[in-house]
Amino acid sequence: GENVEQHPSTLSVQEGDSAVIKCTYSDSASNYFPWYKQELGKRPQLIIDIRSNVGEKKDQRIAVTLNKTAKHFSLHITETQPEDSAVYFCAAIHTGRRALTFGSGTRLQVQP
Amino acid sequence: GAVVSQHPSRVICKSGTSVKIECRSLDFQATTMFWYRQFPKKSLMLMATSNEGSKATYEQGVEKDKFLINHASLTLSTLTVTSAHPEDSSFYICSARTGARDSPLHFGNGTRLTVT
């Protein structure tokens, strides 16, 4: 089945700096890659997603890149703010299944 | 946007009792819902896929007799933790997809179960 690895597990940045979180996946047939933000005790919220026919997608301060050949995708957050502090999960959909496989999560802390 | 409602948000029960968690899709029909479990500071682990009108599909290592799933309608799936033990204490989250396989997955608010 699909295996998603995520790095780093924790990331601390200064307010205003950029943050990058990287994920790799194992199944070359996976074609949908969402990113979720989860605040403590709350549900994961979809923040951005990308499909395999696109190499990059941007939404204001958030961008995601996908390298299908290398089977990795990354989340980029620019001009970080304290409210960006949360746990971020990457995920991939295995085309033989219907459920997402999640990465292990990255705890992002933005220092004011 | 799509809303998934999950109840209760918190539940405390004694060992040996059963707890039912409900997951509802409020503004869309979900033929498939997914149940995840999340331990503190850990990732979301898929427990089972709930299929409307048929049996759930359980992931390897998940006891189907302990985690009973019923998906009797297009808007409701339930997870019952039977004969709960302290090690079942966890955050349980349901989710559903509004459309195709590559459409976004929407999560319920989650249920924090504590078994004493």
Show the helix and strand layout.
The complex is a heterodimer of chains A (112) and B (116).
Chain A: E1 4-7, E2 10-14, E3 19-25, E4 32-38, E5 45-51, E6 56-59, E7 62-67, E8 72-77, E9 86-93, E10 100-102, E11 106-111
Parallel strand pairs in A: 2-11
Antiparallel strand pairs in A: 1-3, 3-8, 4-5, 4-9, 6-7, 7-8, 9-10, 9-11
Chain B: E1 4-7, E2 10-13, E3 19-25, E4 32-38, E5 44-51, E6 57-58, E7 67-73, E8 76-81, E9 90-97, E10 105-107, E11 111-115
Parallel strand pairs in B: 2-11
Antiparallel strand pairs in B: 1-3, 3-8, 4-5, 4-9, 5-6, 7-8, 9-10, 9-11
The SSE order of chain A reads EEEEEEEEEEE
- State Rg of chain A: 13 Å
Shape annotation of chain A: globular
Chain-averaged pLDDT of chain A: 93
Q: Mean of the pLDDT scores of chain B?
A: 91
Number of helices of chain B: 0
- Regions with little confidence, pLDDT below 50 for 5+ residues of chain A: none
Question: Can you put this structure into words, describing what you see?
Answer:
- The complex is a heterodimer of chains A (112) and B (116).
- In chain A, strands 2, 4, 5, 9, 10 and 11 form a 6-stranded mixed beta sheet that branches. A 5-stranded antiparallel beta sheet of chain A has the order 1-3-8-7-6, with no helix packed on it.
- Chain A has 112 residues and is mainly β.
- Chain A starts with a strand and ends with a strand.
- Chain A contains no helices and 11 strands.
- In chain B, a hairpin with a 5-residue loop joins β4 (32-38) and β5 (44-51).
- Chain B contains no helices and 11 strands.
- The A-B interface holds A 31-32, 34, 36, 41-46, 49, 51, 89, 91, 93, 95, 98-105, 107 and B 32, 34, 41-46, 49, 93, 97, 101-102, 104-110, 112.
